[in-house]
Input
Amino acid sequence: MMLQVSQSSSEAARRFIAFVNASPTPFHAVHNASVRLEASGFKKIREADDWEKTLQPRGKYYFTRNQSSLVAFTIPPNWKQGAGLSIVATHVDSPNLRVRPISKRERTGYLQVGVETYGGGIWHSWFDRDLSLAGRVVVTQQDGTFQSKLIKVDRPLLRIPSLAIHLDRNVNDNLKFNQETEFVPILGLVAETLNKKSKDDKVSNATAASIQGNHHPALLSVIANELSVSPEEIHDFELHLYDTQPSVLGGIDNEFMFSPRMDNQVCSFCAVDAISTYVSSSNFNLLEGNVNCIALFNHEEIGSVSTSGAESSLIPSLLQRLSPTPALHSQSVARSFLISADMGHAIHPNFTSKHEDNHQPTMNGGIVIKTNAKQKYASDAIGSFVVKKLVERKGGKVQEYEVRNDMACGSTVGPMLSKLGLRTVDVGNAMLSMHSIRETAGSHDVQNAIDLFTSFFEGFTELDKTLTVD
Output
C-alpha cells in the first residue's frame, strides 16, 4: 500500500528543496532565510544599533552576525521586560570541504585545489561527484570600499576521482584513503592553461592584501567572472565545495527527499517557515506572553565555539537586551523555553542492530524526541511532555530515540544552551545517511516540524500556565 502524501506535506517538502538548492553554504542559508523573513514583514536590525528603545508591540525583527548566523523574534502585543523567550534553535552548517588559504597545487599535469575537511563527513561519499564552489568573497567596490559578496558557481568545476578497481583490487573489502594526499580535487589540466597566461598571472608586485599568488589564476578568473570584478579586486574568500546535483523528491510515492545538507537545513528551513507563517496568521495579533524567536547558528558540526555558534553571545545578548536588569533577566530566563531542533537517526533496514530495540524512529513517523541520560541531549520529562502536548494540538505523532548503551551518542546545540538556565528539549526529524554528501529524509516530516514549531509559537505560553514543576 502506497503512502498518501497530503498536499501541505508535498508543498512544504518542495519549498524546502528550493531552499536547500539555493543554500550551498551557511552564508547562503542565512541570506535566503533573511529574504523569507523580510517578505513576511520582518525588519532587519543591527547589533551595533540601540534598537531596544524602538521595539514596537507586534514588531517583527531579525539580525545576522558574520553573514552566517541569524536570530529573528516577534514582540507580543502587551510585552513587558522580563517576559520569556520561546526559542527554536537550529544550525545551518554541514560537513563539507573548504578551500585552503593557499590552495594552488599541481601534480603530474593536473591543476589541483587544496582543501580542508570540515566536520565529521562520510568522506568517501565525496568521490566521483560533480563539485563546484560557493561561499563569500571580499571584493573592492567602485568607490574604493570593500564588501563581502556571496558567490555560487552553478556548474561543475571540481572532482575527486576514485582509483580504478584494477589498481586497487581490495577496494570493496577495505576502502581506506589518506585525506591529505588521496583526497585532493582536480580543477583541470596544466596543458589547457598554458596558452591562457595573461597579466592576471603576474604577482611580483603583490601586496599583503593580495591573494593572487595563493590560488590558481584559472580559479581566480572563474570567481572574478561570477562577480563581475577583476582578479586583482578579490582580496580574500571563504569557499566551500558542494555537489551540483539538485535536491529532489524520490521514492515510489515521493515519500523521500534525496539531498545534501539536510542535517540541519531541514530544521532551519522549518523554523523560518513556521515563524514567517505564524506572523501572517490571526493568532499573531491576539497572542500575549513570550517573545517568539528562532536562532540559526553556525559551527555546530565542529563544537559551536565561535562568534556565530551556539556558545557565542547571541542568545545571552538578546536576553540581556530585552530584559536588562538582573531581576528582569532572571525572570525572563525562568519563563523561557528552548526547542533544540536537529536531525535524528532513522532505523536503517540493512543495519537494524545499530538502534536500541525499543527506540527505532522511522522517516515520516513524526517528530523524534531525543533523550540521553548523560545529557548529550538536553531532554527531560518536562520538555518531552511539552513537545508531546504541542504536537497533539496539531494532530501529529511523536517518536522516541535513545542510543544503545554500547554506542557513543552525538550531541546538539541543546545542552550548551541549557547552561543558560533555559528549559530545553532536543527534537528532530528522522533521516538516513546523515553527513553523507547525499542524505535521505522523509518528505512528510518537513510539515511535521513546521507544525510543531507553529504550535510552539501559538500555544506554549498557555500550556506553560497549566504546568507546575517548582
User: Anything to note?
Assistant: The longest strand covers residues 96-107. The mean pLDDT is 95. The CA atoms of residues 3 and 202 lie 61 Å apart.
